[in-house]
Fold this protein.
Amino acid sequence: MAEAPDSTVPAPALERVHRFDDVRLEAPGTDWPVAVPAFEEGRFHSPKHRALQLLMKAAQGSALRLPGPLQRGLVATLAGAGRALDRRHTRAAEDYIRAALPLATDPEVDRLVAQAWRHLLRIALVAVGVDRHVMGGRLGDHYEIEACPEALDVLGRPGGAIMLSAHVGFWEACCPAIVGMGWGPSYGVGKAPRNDFVARDLQRARESQGMRVIPRKGAMAAVPAAVRAGASVGMLLDHRPRRKAIYAPFFGRMAACDRSAGVLLRRVKAPLVFYACYSQPGTDALDAWRFQMRFPVVIEPEELSALDPEAIATRINSELERLILHRPDEAFWLHDRFRGAPEPAPGESTAESSGAR
């Protein structure tokens, strides 16, 4: 097996792509080629859950309508409260940042932890604001596209693709650009919120932007069918799975990874296109609603054909690290990424302990 790329090496500069600038960001009215399983209902479908969903929508809508300074003040206040009250996730963020940025000073770590809490709330606002502020406009008015030649080559081929990213940047704003560029029909694999009303809101919002959500529980069957039908399927693979975990290096430490994802990616035999959606440098996403979509790397299916799930996870993690390090101020550091993972034995590298060769 070839060694995974060193994520500490800066990614090569990408070409700025203008050919999609005049595309109108509208839901294409897709006849979805593959039916997806419904999110399970019944367990979280009480009047209390309905009230919580309505309260959340009202709070998000009210916050979006606030003037910029008031909105930023509200986000900072709520983020500070979350950081103080939820010490477990705050400690997890500190641990995660020190693994990813070992040279960061204590003040730098503290700043990134505070920024991660603010970013969580900004993501929640972007999720409900894209329909209002982005849809209906020109792609070039809201997105700068930067892509490697291999990504553009995949876009021009027949057949589907797997789109991989991490919880960095504004992943909730990526759908209009992905669909507008022609990566469609488009699906995304996700876990349903623990509220049936919120889950249905999520599905409606995604479909209004041209993407349908596949529940994780049905992904092993639905994803290969979608790719065979020529669709793209997006996944965020930097979470810590609760079941069927394998362990692979991530920022120099062992981290739990989803075993079924590695099995699925090898089975589908489609190109893996890595991407991330950041704010455009020098702008505030909630003021300007301007984003930067980057497509830096493609892994062809033959590169994975002889690898086991641990080796696939190792290869993918190295690219996710680069996406995160490109904009650490927009990374979701609050994931408890390393909890429960084994530590390498003295003198053993993380690659050796994962079984990668």
In short: Residues 17-344 form one domain.
